[in-house]
Design brief:
Helices cover 23% and strands 31% of the residues. It is α+β, with helices and mostly antiparallel strands. Strand 3 (47-50) and strand 4 (53-56) form a beta hairpin. The longest helix is centred in the N-terminal third of the chain and has 9 residues, at 15-23. Bound molecules: uracil.
Length: 234
């Protein structure tokens, strides 16, 4: 594939813009500056640098972000900053989208991709993808709460009860909750309907993908290897 096409596909700008980057000597491939935008390279696994920063070609982008509190999962945030500000510019330019939403004050694992099919599969109620949350409560956990969540609680906008797929107390005021649907404010509303209140919410896993312990809040990384296979096999 021509270098200008490769750079354009990876979110470095329009074809015209990326040609200018190349002609200005800002792009290296396999350690050597390449000033010819029409030079041909095999894109798969290609490592290149743009303006000193190293990149690897990804036919599609799959990334995980450790969402911090105080950010909205929206391209046009209303009251806070956007999670998209936390990503590298080329990811935004190539049209990466979040898989589902987390509230502004929820932290934890957010998956973003430009693979529309995967977004659809992970978000579709039909696929019942498990989402695991660490929940901090206002009142202590008790048997009544866990039983109510497992049996199903009725939310305002739906007469059908919504049940947790799993509930495990993990402290006096903490539990791990797994849900397989994705209604608006679902966890907070379920906990409220069961007579308690969410003080803090942190997503620890989506499908088979867990938030890595070494990914700090506000940082992102590519999803690859078995993590990606597990996510795609949902
Ligand atoms: N449920 C909620 O209430 N909020 C979230 O951010 C995610 C799930």
């Amino acid at each position: 594939m021509q270098l200008d096409r490769i750079l354009h596909s990876q979110g470095f700008g329009s074809r015209k813009e990326v040609r200018a980057l190349v002609r200005h000597g800002l792009v290296s491939v396999a350690g050597e500056i390449c000033e010819n935008p029409f030079a041909e390279f095999e894109p798969e696994n290609l490592v290149f640098t743009v303006d000193g920063e190293e990149w690897r070609y990804h036919a599609q982008a799959y990334v995980m972000l450790h969402k911090p509190s105080g950010y909205e999962v929206s391209q046009k945030p209303k009251h806070h900053r956007s999670v998209f500000e936390l990503l590298a510019d080329p990811l935004r330019v190539r049209g990466i989208q979040a898989v589902g939403r987390l509230d502004e004050d929820t932290t934890g694992l957010l998956i973003l991709t430009d693979d529309g099919q995967l977004i659809h599969r992970l978000s579709s109620p039909k696929h019942k993808v498990p989402k695991r949350y660490a929940v901090t409560l206002k009142h202590p956990v008790n048997e009544e709460l866990t039983q109510a969540l497992l049996a199903g609680v009725v939310l305002h906008d739906d007469p059908e009860p919504v049940a947790a797929a799993a509930v495990e107390p993990s402290g006096e005021y903490e539990l791990t909750l797994t849900i397989t649907s994705g209604k608006y404010h679902q966890v907070k509303r379920m906990i409220a309907a069961a007579g308690n209140r969410v003080e803090a919410l942190h997503r620890t896993a989506v499908g088979g993908l867990a938030l890595p312990a070494d990914l700090p809040a506000g940082e992102w990384r590519w999803i690859s290897g078995t993590d990606l296979e597990r996510l795609r096999s949902v």
